[in-house]
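3.2 Worked example (two chains)
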Amino acid sequence: MSEPVNPSRTDRKRRSVLKAAGGGALFATPLLAAAPASAQEVDVRSAATARERRLKRLTLVAFERQATGGSFYDVLADDVIWTVAAAEPTTHYGREAFLANGSGPVMGRLSTTLVPEVRSIWAQNDTVVIHWDGSAVARDGVPYHNSYCWIWTYRGESVIKAVAFLDLVALNDLFDRIPLPS
C-alpha cells in the first residue's frame, strides 16, 4: 500500500517545477496536479535535448547577426513557409517570396537596422519559439517599435516553417505613414 500524499510536500515540488519551468502559469497547475509524483520531480532545466540546445544557439546567433547589421533570415531554408498570423493570415512560400513580399515591405520603410532584443526563447523538438522586441528608425525619422513572437520549425539547421505574431497596429501605422521607395 502506498503512503498517503503529504499535500505540503507535493505543493513544494509543484512550485519548484513551475519555478524551473519559468513561472507559475495557471494552466500548468492542473497538468502537474494530475501527473504522478515521479513526473513532478523532473528537473525541467536539464530535460532539454542536445538538439534543442543547438537550435536555440542557432536562433540566438541569427538574432545577434541581425543586431549587428546582418540578417536573421540567413537561417531560412529556400523552401520555407512563412505565415504572418492575423485574422486573415498571409503565407509566403519560399525564402525569396518572403524576403520580397513579407520582410521587404517592412525593412524598406526603415532607415536603420531593425535591432532585436530577445525577451525569451524556448525549444521543443525541432521547434523554437522566440519572443522579442524590435526597434528601428523609420524613414520619416519616427522610432518604430514592435513586439514579436516567432515560432520556427527547423529541418537540420534551416528554418522550414515560421509563424509570426506581431503588433499589427504598429506595423499598419508604419505602412500608412511611409510609402515604399520606388
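3.2.1 Second chain
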Amino acid sequence: MDSVSALLRHAALDLARDPLETRPVYHATDDAITAYRALLEAGGEPTRIVVAGESAGAGLAMATLLGARRAALPQPAAGLLFVTMGGSDQSGQPHEPS
C-alpha cells in the first residue's frame, strides 16, 4: 500500500471497525470526521479528496460527508458509495438459494 500511495501521491485512511471495539458504532462517524478534519488541517485540498465506502462503509462514508457539511467543513471532491442493490441477475428480486 505504501508504494501505491507514493506512486499515486495519495493517502488512504482505513477506518475498518475493530471487532473488539467496545464503543458504540456511532463513534466511527466521529473518528472519520476527525480524520477528515485532520487531513484538511495538514494541507489536504478538498478538491483532491474522495470519501468512499462499500457496504456498511458506504453508510459511514455518507455519515462522514453529512457530518462534515454539518460542521461547515469544506466538502470533498466526491463521495463514492458502493452498495449491493439486488440479486446477481439485476432483476431487483431477492436471490433465491438453489
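3.3 Remarks
Residues 2-82 form one domain.
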